Amino acid sequence: MAGRRTMRHTVSRGLICLALCGFAGAVVAQEYHGNEKPAGNDWVSQTTQTCASCHGKNGVSQTANFPVIAGQYQDYLLHSLKAYRDGDRKNAIMGGQVQGMSDAQLKALARYYSEQDSPLHTPMAD
Ligand code: HEC
Fold first, then answer.
1. Residue 10 sits in which domain range?
2. How many whole angstroms from 115 Cα to the centroid of ligand 1?
3. For 11-42, how does the pLDDT look when each residue is reduced to its tens digit (9 = 90+)?
4. Could you tell me if residue 125 is inside a domain?
5. Cα–Cα separations (whole angstroms), residue 35 to 21, 25, 44, 87, 120
C-alpha cells in the first residue's frame, strides 16, 4: 500500500511539472511572437552594456575614437544603425555590433540613446 501511494505522488508531481513547463512555454512564445526577437527594457539594458564598452555609459563617450550617441536624434540613430546592419554604412566594428538585430531592436536602441542626457547640443538661430 505504502509503495503505491508514493508512486501516485510521483506521478502527480510529474503532471504538475508538465503543466507548469507547458505554461512557461506558452508565455515565452507569446512574448516573442514567433520569430520576432525581444526588444524590451531587459534586452536594451543588457545590450547597451556592450555598447557602453566603446560609447561610454549611456552613450556619452569619453574618447575621440568613439562618437557620443547619447542625445542624438532618434531618427538619425535608427537610420545609422540600420545602415550599419544592412551594409549601407560600412564600418567593420559597428557592422558586427548590430548584425542580425531586428528593426524593433534597433528602434529600441535608438530610442534609448536619444533619451539619454548628452553633452551634445544643436545651436539655435536667433
Ligand atoms: C568595439 C567598439 C564599439 C562597440 C561595442 C559599439 N560601437 Fe557603435 N561605433 C563604434 C565606432 C568606432 C563608431 C564610428 C564608426 C564610423 O565611423 O562609422 C561607432 C558608431 C556608432 C553610431 C553612429 C554614430 C554617429 O554619430 O553617426 C551609432 C548609432 C552606434 N555606434 C551605436 C552603437 C550601439 C547601439 C552599440 C551597441 C549595440 C554600439 N554602437 C557598439 C564603436 C563601437
1. 1-35
2. 17
3. 555 555 455 545 555 444 444 544 579 999 99
4. no
5. 21, 15, 18, 22, 37
